């Protein structure tokens, strides 16, 4: 069964939500490759999934670090452990083993759980930081405009 994106997977930060949505698409791609009985297709999708997930993790980590999220270190550790786990599956798949069922099960449960708990946990801190940054920019451009046109 493919993983359906739904509003209960949204954390309310659009840039993150769209990245998570893309990861869900890749996970569904893994399953599709399996249905097509194509090991070649599977390896390609797996590569894309790992690449995209890594860049998402990097983006998310810099976002929470910048916002001063107190559990950044722990969050990074969870990302690193998951990455290692997926790379393990990737290696087994490359060696010709059929890991799809185990892999998609792991991917789905991990991602849903991580988004709903770990990622959702940083939302408040990151949103506050984003609002502050927007205010600062507005204040700056405000004073610049008033100097110019005032
Ligand atoms: Fe995360
Ligand atoms: Fe995330």
UniProtKB/TrEMBL annotation:
GO MF annotation list: metal ion binding
Residue ranges constituting the Hemerythrin-like domain according to the UniProt record: 13-122
Pfam families, sorted: Hemerythrin
Classification via InterPro entries: Hemerythrin (IPR050669), Hemerythrin-like (IPR012312), Hemerythrin-like_sf (IPR035938), Hemerythrin_metal-bd (IPR012827)
CDD domains found in the cross-reference section: Hemerythrin (cd12107)
SUPFAM superfamilies: Hemerythrin-like
Gene3D superfamilies the record matches: Hemerythrin-like
KW Membrane (keyword) present: no
Keywords: Iron, Metal-binding
The family this protein is said to belong to: Belongs to the hemerythrin family.
Name listed for the protein in its UniProt record: Bacteriohemerythrin
Organism: Pseudomaricurvus hydrocarbonicus
